[in-house]
């Protein structure tokens, strides 16, 4: 039995190539070597750089192999086409060249060097190595068309060969001695040979049309995994998964690069017309060939067998062509061709240059990257940013600030804690009268009953933090008394909430909150490694789900040409935090959450050192407001603070850009895409919207009323979505626009082809980003609930290396909050220092800490 653990599974053709395919070949003799001349064993490098196997033997296709197969492949192809209905059994017999006295009468040659075989040993099998095509010159040289992957050994190395020719249906054999040979320049498969005793053109011409052979023993030793193609014929075909026998191999067809097994389906045997299917002979699809029990096991990709069943009007050739697309290697080629076409059409063919230079591994890396590009998204991004409708804001109506927003402030929290004397305030008067405490209790119930999930947005490249920063923001270490990474702080807060929820959960229930970590090409590997190294920070490994978002190529500022990090690497960047929705949907996470019974998902940015992860208050608040979208806001510090501003946009029908937007509007209450004009509404509809600081006009940012900023509700990137809403965001009618982020993008230096990418010192390109809050506009405003929170308690962003919003400012804020906790502890020892009591946990959570 041979499993295909190794990549080099071979299918050696014991070949009588063209014999049954071309009658013209059946008229001559053959040139053979006997089994004593075993000089040829080592595989050699083929003309196309691939490994050749002796006698045209070749390996079962594997995507990396590329073994030379053309010879036998072509042979079988011809065979198949001309003898389509030939049964495996009869063909196998024909294919084996067996010297027997009855079939090989004496060959009478006038030439002195040739020895006729009176009686060839019954046990000797021969394989063809060439066809004698014509004489050359006047000294008896012969041109042989090679049928072997080892032409040098066969046609240059002196030694015994055999010639077989068939005259009037009678086969005769001759043993000859090869004296020398040489390749005909420019003719890859033709060789000139000189045989002992054949000195003139006339003598040589006796052999025209003959076949040259060597003893089958001359074939290179087969690996365990190798199989002669004739041996495949007649083997049973079993579905590996169910062990169901589906049919028998009746033939092997080669299409050039890959062989196809022709299988007669068992279910159709004895019917008036049997059904034959083609199965690519590649290890991905035929993982096991058992030579002893004569069976192959297959794992056909979905649709392969169905595709095979001949349909009305589809020719065998067409079907075979489609079958070949199931071979990964083929698929890659076809897909790459499509990508090339697409890039050329986009005027981006410079990206393809690397495919014609460099090492194979570099070209492969580029191919892989090109195949991973989502071109429809890229096109969409280009249209958004460079298209005619380009507008930074794409404003469709008039803006206004949101109405007064509920405030989550555990007013007098310290007093409240003091009063409760170490008990979770479930029934106290304070709890029911205090909004925040009520939300807390409601939210904690949601956690306790497994109704919540959390997403951390951690796909960003943290370029603003400078070259010294870790590759992933979440790995950034906060120099607290007990230094901790952002991921660790956040994981510990999640654990706190779980512990607290356990207090109110059913006896014995230990709630687990799924924590989804949004990663990207840039952050996925290091993020996973970091979690692993840190034992998931005490969380259960199974509750941490890594969700990789898509990346898109970066383009030049002018003209949108794709930027290259090197000739073999496109500069790519994650598609912004709005890429979350597509990633959740495409990778089945929404379904997973749904199966768990999750109703609400909190989504926050990893760079906030004070974020209240899995905040029960937020969940309880959203539930009470029956919100689909929850948005935490704080008061802006100043007009120029780098935060998005939350506004309401009143869409008016007299706005010229209204038409386009209304036609895209999706009614999320019934999930259908509607044209607002069709429904008669929308002439004056309101939607929530966030204007990003990088895009909002300064007039808006600085507008004041009575000294106060008009637009002061800052988006702190701590949001919440109902699962139902997230599912609606998966509707194909919802397409978030891309925004242009002007960034310093590492690029290949023009002078140095192999250079490490050079980081520009000023923005040199565009990263395409979708914004998470662009989904708000799809939600009825009454289903959007804004919750104002305390900056000191919940917002300490780390954006920059130094100065505002840096690690230093964030650390100071965390310490300040924790100090409030400490001072409170000193005042009331009994209420605070009781280890892992619920009260300690609650306090730790409220004060930005964690349980040490
Ligand atoms: C697209 C997006 O979500 N941008 C957010 C996000 O900004 P960045 O500068 O991209 O980190 O976090 C800010 C709060 O830290 C928030 O104000 C802003 O709106």
- Beta content comes to 15-25%
Q: Based on DSSP secondary structure assignment, what is the total number of beta strands?
A: 42
Q: Please state the structural category.
A: alpha+beta
Bound molecules: 2-acetamido-2-deoxy-1-O-phosphono-alpha-D-glucopyranose
Helix segment count?
26
State the major sheet: 10 strands, mixed
Into which percent range does the helicity of residues fall? 25-40%
The termini sit apart by: 58 Å
Sum up the overall morphology in one term: elongated
Q: Round the Cα radius of gyration to an integer and report it.
A: 37 Å
| Unreliable sequence segments | 1-110, 118-123, 656-683, 827-834
Mean pLDDT: 77
Summary keywords:
852 residues, alpha+beta, ten-stranded mixed beta sheet, nine-stranded mixed beta sheet, 24% strand, elongated, disordered N terminus, binds 2-acetamido-2-deoxy-1-O-phosphono-alpha-D-glucopyranose
